[in-house]
Structures are given as C-alpha cells and as structure tokens.
Automatic annotation (TrEMBL):
This is Probable GTP 3',8-cyclase. One of its GO terms (biological process) is Mo-molybdopterin cofactor biosynthetic process. The gene is moaA. CDD domains: Radical_SAM, Twitch_MoaA. [4Fe-4S] cluster 2 binds at C257, C260, C274. PANTHER family: MOLYBDENUM COFACTOR BIOSYNTHESIS PROTEIN 1 (PTHR22960:SF0), MOLYBDOPTERIN COFACTOR SYNTHESIS PROTEIN A (PTHR22960). It is an enzyme of class 4 (lyase).
Length: 316
C-alpha cells in the first residue's frame, strides 16, 4: 500500500488509518482447541444474514476500508459461506480473506475462489495425529491437510498456515511444518501465545509459552531476506531456502496498538473497535432493522473509529 493510499483513509485521533475490517460471521466451531480466545469476542447466539453482512461492508467501503477478513468460530460451518463471499466480492475490495481450521476447506476451496475470495489462513498446529487430537479434541487432521493443498490448487494466494507454537506440545515440529508448507506452496506463520488476565489462562501461558526470541535470532542468521510489514505491527517475514516464515508476536504491547489499522465486527453485528476490549462496542444490526439509512450507519462507523484508543499507550 502506497503513502497516497494511506493518506486517503479515514484515521482515528491517533492518526491510525482504517484499512481492514475483520468480520466474525459465527461463534460456532467444529473443533475445541484448548488455547482458543474466540478472537476477543464474547460468545453470542445470533448470526448476521448474508444481506446484513453485505450492507455492512458496503458502508465500510464508503469510509475507505479496502480489505475484508472473514473469521469465526469456524466460518466454513455456515452453509451460505459461498453466498457471503460472493456478495462481499460484488461490492469490490482489494483483498478478501478468510481464516479457517481447514477441515471443510477441501470441499469449498474452488467455489470460494470462484466467488471472489483472495487468500486464506489455515489454523493448523501439528503434523502429529495424536497432538492434533490433544489440541482440537477431534480427529480431522487429514481433512485439514487436504484443505491446505486444495486451497493452493484452487488459486488462493497466499495460503498461510497459522501454527500456535506451544512448549512441550509442538515446538519440536517447527521445521517439519516449514517443510510441509514449502513443499505444498503455503507460507508458515508462527504464532506466539498471548497472555491474558484470566488466572487459569495465565497458568496455561506459563506452562506452554514458547518464546520466539531465540528462533528469530536463528532465522536472522539463516534467512536469505527479511521483510518488515509496517502495517502488520512490524511483523517480520523470513525467506529461507525457497520457503517463507512469518512470526506473530503477542498483541499485548504498545507496538501492536500503535500500528493497529483494523476494525472488527462481532457475529451479532456490533463494531468492535479494539481487539482487547468489549466495553465500547457500537451496534449496527438494531439500527439497520429500525430502518436507518447507510448514511446513518456510516456515522456509526465514524463514531466507533473516533472512539478508538490504544489499549496499551506508552508509545502512542
């Protein structure tokens, strides 16, 4: 993205441009990963219709949003997922992506691509069947692997594999996963555990947290090239022997907040200005049902943007 493109974006009072919108289209999921934080969203029963989602993205486009990501729960659980993607695509965005656990991706990959999906992230933590069962409480590893391959074959690009690295569980599989991704045309994205304020989860963090620092030192030494992604919280991408590895460090820091350019929509149709807060949500669904115009909905978006404040503020 160029400087001129950024200059055209709506910004919050901390000069952060609004570039992307992440829409959680369901809380339902077909696995039970024990580290899941539900993307910071409080579980709700209600799901937006495909028409409601389309209207929301139309308003988002009018304020300069040009990237959409669909997430869940597991978004491919929705039987109307192809319709949702097609309706978003008809509005016209630079990038439409989706985060999935990959179990149903083999079934939908080609149709998703034809409907207008640009790329996909697959949450997939291990190549060991027993470890997969331990993490997800399910036996779908082969389905997920097939989904990754089908996504690449369908033309989705890039296909990224999100691996949450956990000490004593899968930290010994990093290079096996790297080779799997490289051999199948995917990019490996290593995710460091996020520490929360919850006491029980804090104990989980202490037991399983794997510090990426030593690995990053190694990657700096062996990589052919390192790319810093400015509008992705200065995330580093390492190019190693024909493959790619990205490192996603924890979000509980000022650097993440300083470079945050994303809004979120909850499954029940509320704007979530900050990943780490649930006390400043702005409702869209009830105003839509009450007959408010898109102009009024745009004002709701602008209100949410102007109320954004960095959760961590030391350097903002």
């Amino acid at each position: 993205m160029t400087k001129s493109n950024i200059a055209e974006k709506v910004t919050d009072k901390f000069k952060r441009p609004m570039i992307s919108l992440r829409i959680s289209i369901t809380n339902r999921c077909n696995v039970k990963c024990f580290y899941c934080h539900h993307d910071g969203i409080v579980p709700q029963d209600y799901e937006m219709t495909s028409n409601e989602i389309k209207r929301i993205v139309q308003v988002a486009k009018s304020i300069g949003i040009d990237k959409i990501r669909l997430s869940g729960g597991e978004p491919l659980i929705r039987e109307d997922i192809i319709d949702i993607v097609a309706k978003i695509s008809s509005v016209g965005f630079r990038d439409i992506s989706l985060t999935t656990n990959g179990i149903l991706l083999g079934k939908y990959a080609e149709n998703l691509y034809n409907a207008g999906l640009t790329r996909v992230n697959v949450s997939f933590d291990t190549l060991n069947p027993d470890t997969y069962k331990f993490i997800t409480k399910r036996d779908y590893m082969e389905n997920a692997m097939e989904g990754i391959k089908k996504a690449v074959e369908a033309g989705l690009n890039p296909v990224k594999v999100n691996m949450v690295v956990m000490k004593g569980i899968n930290d010994n599989e990093i290079w096996d996963m790297f080779n799997f991704c490289k051999n199948n045309g995917a990019i490996l994205q290593l995710i460091e555990l996020l520490k929360t304020e919850n006491g029980q989860e804090s104990e989980f963090f202490e037991e399983y947290h794997f510090d990426m620092g030593e690995l990053e030192d190694e990657l700096h030494k062996i990589s052919n090239h390192v790319k810093i992604r400015k509008f992705m919280q200065d995330r580093k991408k390492y190019f190693v022997d024909g493959g790619e590895i990205e490192i996603v460090r924890p979000m509980d820091n000022t650097e993440f907040c300083k470079n945050c350019t994303r809004l979120r929509i909850t499954p029940d149709g509320k704007i979530k200005p900050c990943l780490l807060r649930n006390d400043n949500l702005v409702d869209l669904i009830e105003p839509m049902r009450s007959g408010l115009s898109n102009k009024k909905l745009k004002q709701a978006f602008l209100e949410a943007i102007q109320n954004r404040e960095p959760y961590f503020t030391d350097s903002c």
